Amino acid sequence: MPKELLIASAAMAMFIVCPRMAGMVHVISRHSQVSLVATALLGSVLSIPLVVAIVLVFAKTGLWGALTFCVLTDFAAAYVMKEMSLQAGVETLIIALFVVLGVNLAPRIAGLFLR
Predict the structure, then answer these.
(1) SS (H, E, C) the chain
(2) pLDDT single digits (tens) 34-55
(3) Helices 19-30, 36-84: inter-axial angle, 10-degree rounding
């Protein structure tokens, strides 16, 4: 395996880890009898096609296309989660809405500090 691919892949693995992902695994675990670790491991494997899809969507449509894809997957997750717990589905939806709000507000707030 080329050194550059190994370094780039290690960086990618670190980018995927985020507080939002950990929070969502916590929501799932709290509303089910499923292990946090088992959910994280199987969910990571199942997410591989979605990670490839988001990269391809970003390459083709840019940031807004990728964000749209992410919002759609968040809404799909909320829909799926409601089968386990309505509260878990609503919490997932609220987190998705905060992501959209954050993407819209972050440039404005940053602009206030960087004038």
Answers:
(1) CCHHHHHHHHHHHHHHCCHHHHHHHHHHHHCCCCCHHHHHHHHHHHHHHHHHHHHHHHHHHHHHHHHHHHHHHHHHHHHHHHHHCHHHHHHHHHHHHHHHHHHHHHHHHHHHHCC
(2) 888 898 899 899 999 999 999 9
(3) 70
pLDDT at 71: 81
Q: How far is CA 9 from CA 26, 37, 86, in A?
A: 26, 22, 37
Q: Name the packing angle between helices 86-113 and 19-30 (round to 10°).
A: 160
Rounded to 10°, the helix 36-84/86-113 angle is: 110
What is the per-residue pLDDT across 71-112, written as a single tens digit (0 to 9) for each? Answer: 888 888 878 877 777 887 787 778 778 877 887 788 899 999
**Structure tokens of 68?**
């749209």
* pTM strictly above 0.90: no
Residue 38 tokens read as 């088992």
Based on its alpha-carbon atoms, the radius of gyration of the chain, rounded to whole angstroms, reads 16
